Amino acid sequence: MTLRFTKGHGTQNDFVLVADTRGDLELTADHVRRLADRRGGIGGDGVIRLTPTAAVARAGEEVADRVLAEEPAAIWFMDYRNADGSVAQMCGNGVRVFTAFAEHLGLADLDDGQELALGTRAGVRRVRKEPGGWYAVDMGPWALPGGAEAASRGADSAVLVRGWDAPRPALSVDLGNPHTVVALARPSELADADLTQTPEVDPLPPEGTNVELVVPLAETVDPEGRAVGHVRMRVHERGVGETQSCGTGACAAALAVRTWAAAGATGAVPDVWEVEVPGGLVRVRLLDGGHVELAGPAELVFSGETEL
Ligand SMILES: N[C@@H](CCC[C@H](N)C(=O)O)C(=O)O
After folding, report:
1. pLDDT at 265
2. Is 58 helix (H, G, I), strand (E, B) or coil?
3. What is the C-alpha separation between 173 and 1, in angstroms, rounded?
4. Which ipTM was obtained for this model?
5. pLDDT at 264
6. Does ligand 1 lie within 6 Å of residue 93's CB atom?
7. Which domain of life is it from (predicted)?
8. 207 CA distance to ligand 1 centroid (A)?
9. pLDDT value at position 246?
10. Strands 227-237 and 241-243
11. 60 a known binding residue?
């Protein structure tokens, strides 16, 4: 089978994008692994299939029915797969790149100020374009699976990275997909961390987890006088390995650092955070209603055809 694809990335979290506008493409885990292979295939951290939400519902995924019930305009669905072929609920950088792909295909136009609502396995996501060309995504509700107790203790689990003497305390954050965030004291510790092997997480959530190592940096003040938090992060993604960026991971990192700051704060903590990742910079903002927003760039790099 000949397959048309487009390669894209968001802060170098890179994806193979496939348009399945009729909803009849059967993309197996083996197909995904071959497409994502950096030597034998096109290469990417993940594969994104753009397909009708109705087709996903017809295939029996109940989340697609819920998406259409909540937002009938969410006619396109982001079917996200990790490079190892596993299915993931959500990808923050992927939503931005999916939106750029939908615009490229003529299925959406955000330049006139409209938003795109799309379906994902974590529910409806809404995207708008900012004046500078960044895409801002309402990432929906976030949660601390460990609840108020984890928030006050600052941890609900422990992570051991290869080369560390002992496990370090970590906080679980749910962005529709699972994350476990560990604070490090210094940028040099972050730079030196060995993420070539999957970190050991205890307890490991049943569906596995993405692990973020973070270093909180000094706050700044924006031109409107609001405090802006800063975090530097590296990530080991479930189903991939270390990547150059992770959008849901950046949200988890900012939310964990904010939770830790709030636990010891005497004053207000920032609602806007800039997260530095090896592949660039993204912005995380707390929204009303327990939602969080992720903003950043999305680039389409090239298109072509491949044999599956
Ligand atoms: N890179 C993505 C997250 C992709 C899914 C993740 N590996 C998982 O299995 O949950 C992002 O930008 O959020």
Report:
1. 73
2. helix
3. 40
4. 0.99
5. 81
6. yes
7. Bacteria
8. 13
9. 98
10. antiparallel
11. no
pLDDT band at residue 267 under the 50/70/90 scheme: confident
User: What single letter denotes the amino acid at residue 140?
Assistant: G
Alpha helices by DSSP H, 23-75 = 29-36, 53-58, 62-70
Q: Which residue has the higher pLDDT, 265 or 194?
A: 194
Q: Which secondary-structure segment (H or E) carries 248?
A: helix 247-264
Condensed to tens digits (0 to 9), the pLDDT of residues 82-128 reads: 999 999 999 999 999 999 999 999 999 998 889 999 999 999 999 99
Both tokens assigned to 107: 């299925």
Peptide bond connecting 297 to the previous residue in cis, omega within 30 degrees of 0:
no
Q: Is 247 annotated as a binding residue?
A: yes
Residue type, 295: A
Report pLDDT for 266.
73
Question: What DSSP string describes 175-235?
Answer: SSSEEEEEE-S-HHHHHH---SSPPEEESPPTT--EEEEEEEEEEEE-TTS-EEEEEEEEE
Q: Which domains does the chain have, with CATH numbers?
A: 2-129 (3.10.310.10), 147-287 (3.10.310.10)
Distance CA 199, CA 181 (A): 11
Strand partners, 126: 117, 138
Ligand 1 probe mutation, 91, 98, 135, most atoms within 8 A of CB: 91
State the distance between the two ends of the chain, measured CA to CA, in whole angstroms.
5
Cβ–ligand 1 distance for 94 under 6 Å, the answer yes
Tell me the residue length of the chain: 308
